[in-house]
Design a protein that fits this description.
Layout (H helix, E strand, L loop, with lengths): L43 E5 L4 H12 L3 E6 L3 H13 L4 E5 L5 H15 L4 E4 L15 H22 L8 E5 L3 H4 L5 H21 L5 E5 L15 H5 L13 H12 L10 E2 L10
Parallel strand pairs: 1-2, 1-4, 2-3, 4-5, 5-6, 6-7
Helix pairs in contact: 1-2, 1-8, 3-4, 4-6
Keywords: Oxidoreductase
Enzyme class: oxidoreductase
InterPro entries: NAD(P)-bd_dom_sf (IPR036291), Sc_DH/Rdtase_CS (IPR020904), SDR_fam (IPR002347)
């Protein structure tokens, strides 16, 4: 991203991942844009990384459409409590669960807690992620590779494994991948690799679960204004975040959440193994 690009955001950084929405300026826009129409009435959804960013927008939109919500988050308690209040504002129940999706034992515990609270699980959204840019491949430590893969793709396997005993015909799994899976990223080699793995995982799992009537799809966002951005990049890069898209700006979480809703509800009853691309016009998807 060149320094000559137009400013899209105030320069800012956060010193820890996955970042905190409460510290962002401006705050991401998570508010659903339309009244609900009961497209998820009576359903229960578990959303990893559900405390902020895309996960928060998905949680609030699903709640507006009638779903009860369990959100999994690492340690951003203030953001998680804010999301819980937003879900409850929509008239639905919300369970918050703190822990590391890279731990298979935690994933089993999180699903068990959701089942204990709501009695069932209809939609699983794998969304938690981390990224650590490096200028050279030699700078990527084994520990970083392990950590990125453990959160971004191992966690998806673990959550699906934990959820499968509870998912019935008509259930949906939605995995968050990224535009970087299609166009790459010279500074995010390990992150991009995990996002490519998520695409293959999604397409393969869709084939595996089709006979059980469980649909599996993915969403590949472009540059979206979430806490991960100021927690990842230097202030000068944040300043022009999203300027290189055809729409010349970053997207907001509430511009991405409807893709998840579509894939979660019966509107997408004949869609499985597919990826949606809310990315500001990037032409690289396939």
């Amino acid at each position: 991203m060149s320094s000559g690009q137009e400013q899209t955001l105030p320069p800012q950084v956060q010193d820890r991942q996955p970042g905190h929405e409460t510290e962002m300026n401006p705050r991401p826009d998570y508010e659903p844009r339309y009244p609900g129409s009961n497209r998820l009435q009576g359903r229960t959804a578990l959303i990893t990384g559900g405390d902020s960013g895309i996960g928060r927008a998905v949680a609030v939109l699903f709640a507006r459409e009638g779903a009860d919500i369990a959100i999994v988050y690492l340690n951003e308690t203030e953001d998680a409590q804010a999301t819980k209040q937003l879900v409850e504002r929509e008239g639905r129940a919300c369970l918050t669960i703190a822990g590391d999706v890279g731990d298979p034992g935690f994933c089993r515990s999180a699903v068990d807690q959701a089942i204990q609270r709501f009695g069932k699980l209809d939609v699983l959204v794998n969304n938690a992620a981390e990224q650590h840019p490096k200028g050279e491949i030699s700078e990527i430590s084994p520990e970083q590779i392990d950590r990125t893969f453990r959160t971004n793709i191992f966690g998806y396997f673990y959550m699906v494994q934990a959820a499968m005993p509870h998912l019935k015909r008509g259930a949906a799994i939605i995995n968050t991948t990224s535009v970087t899976a299609y166009r790459g990223s010279s500074e995010l080699l390990d992150y991009s690799a995990t996002k490519g793995a998520i695409v293959a995982f999604t397409r393969s799992l869709a084939q595996k679960l089709a006979e059980q009537g469980i649909r599996v799809n993915g969403v590949a966002p472009g540059p979206i204004w979430t806490p991960l951005i100021p927690a990842t990049f230097p202030a000068e890069k944040v300043k022009s975040f999203g300027a290189n898209t055809p729409l010349k700006r970053p997207g907001q979480p509430n511009e991405v959440a409807p893709s998840y809703l579509f894939l979660a509800c019966e509107d997408a009853s004949y869609i499985t193994g597919s990826i949606l691309h809310p990315n500001g016009g990037d032409p690289t998807e396939s």
